[in-house]
Amino acid sequence: MPEILTFKDGRDGQSFEAPIEDDSIRATALKPAGLVSYDPAFLNTASVRSAITYIDGDAGILRYRGYPIEQLAESATYLEVAYLLIHGELPTQEQLAHWADDITMHTFLHENVKRLMEGFRYDAHPMGMLVSVTAALSTFYPEAQDVDDETIRMQQVVRLIAKVPTIAAWSYRHSKGLPYVYPDNDLGFAANFLSMMFRMGEPHYHADPALERALEVLFILHADHEQNCSANVMRSIGSSKADPYVSLAGAAAALYGPLHGGANEAVLRMLVEIGSAKNVPAFIDRVKSGEGRLMGFGHRVYKNYDPRARIIKQTADDVFEVTGRNKLLDIALELEKIALEDEYFVSRKLYPNVDFYSGLIYQALGLPTALFPVMFAIPRTAGWLAQWLEGVQDPEQKIARPRQIYTGAAERDFVAIDSRRATAASTS
Ligand code: CMC
Question: How many angstroms is it from 297 CA to the middle of ligand 1?
Fold first, then answer.
């Protein structure tokens, strides 16, 4: 059978052919028929060819570079996973040692960045700080603009993976009015982050090993998720050959929204608002009648249990063993139980996603709610950079520039200001 899609234009009976490759046709195949494809939220549009992350949403499968997420969460460290995403293969002992050294050496921020952060209001949202400060890093490393130079590209990749946790921790310290804690180069990635967050007078901060491992697991689970909203922004900004700092600031801004990485924060606020497991049925009824959404539920791609949510639930148990059970867990479990049985959620294939339980863990670790999306951004930095690197090296990459279907006024003559009459549009 020829790998060709033939379609007929009903307006004039003309037939057109579109070659099929990898179960897809090029939207430009519609051009000879004078048509464009219209897909406002990319519901059925592949924007790239990518070898990084594989998701089968119906089967609940997630793999980075072919490795199942369950195996990585069980056996890998976050830095191994970051290496895997960036370089395409798991590192050898020697490669990992070199990579970890390189990242560790770049965790410090320029003192001017510190002063910049000190200028934020005491109650600045840490995500707003992260977006601003990552963009500002562009001005500290102007050579980063040379995105066609491989050595320069890799230098910025290391800097960003290393520095984002420092910015994140300092945004937390800032919100608490606490002195910023410099990185401790004797510690691993997650342990150093916990030290920058929580160290007080002691010379070295010793994190509980169970909590450190839980954080590694959360970082691994959030490291990449193929062409989601923020990855798409990262690639889109990168397609203009902007440097990775400003591209990543844009991606982080996309992550901030409550429908994306801000959902973990929204889940916690929702659980607090529900207040008690007995109020869950009434809350579910409100969601079903269109009054808001059940945050942490549903996903554009997963139409099955999000595999990350399954692992997180297990991680939550490990964390609660150290910190004590989070009281909001009972409300979350009740919500999940009722929603998984309810026809509204079942028929729409709405299952818990990665954000449903992650907030409970962050809260048990002592993190304020506003920091939750930042906790998502720390590990996603590796994924964004892997997506950016793949994009800038893709021979098919051109500046992202969608088409539109124009719905505005037809041509009309300019009206002098004295002769204009107010219309509904101009008064609103
Ligand atoms: N609660 C109640 N109803 C929902 C929900 C929800 N969480 N999610 C989707 N629906 C309904 C929606 O109202 C619609 O119903 P109908 O067909 O009657 O109009 C149907 O399910 C399909 O929803 P959609 O908005 O077309 O789905 P989408 O693919 O555009 O949205 C989503 C995906 C994740 C934005 C959405 O499920 C949502 O808003 N979830 C809550 C926010 C959330 O948890 N986001 C985190 C996503 S996972 C982390 C990440 O990758 O960023």
Answer: 7
